[in-house]
Amino acid sequence: MLRPPPTIGARTALSLVIVAAITVFACGRPPGAGVEAAGGAPLDLEGDHGQYLRSVEGARLELVDPGTDGAWREIRGAGRVVRLAASPERIASRTLATDEILLEIAEPERIVLLSPFAGDPQFSASADKAQRLGNVGGFSTEEILAASPDLVFAAGFNTQETLAQLEAAGVPVVVLLDHESLAAIERNIRTVGFAIGRDREAARLVGSMRQRLEEARARVGSRADGLRVVHWSGGVVLGGRTVFDDALSYLGAVNLAAENGLEGWPRISAEQVVVWDPDVIFTDSYVAGDVVPAALDGTRAATLGNLESLDGRDMAAISHHVASMVERLADALVRASERIEAAGARNPVTAPE
Question: Domain containing 296 — which CATH number?
Answer without folding.
Answer: 3.40.50.1980
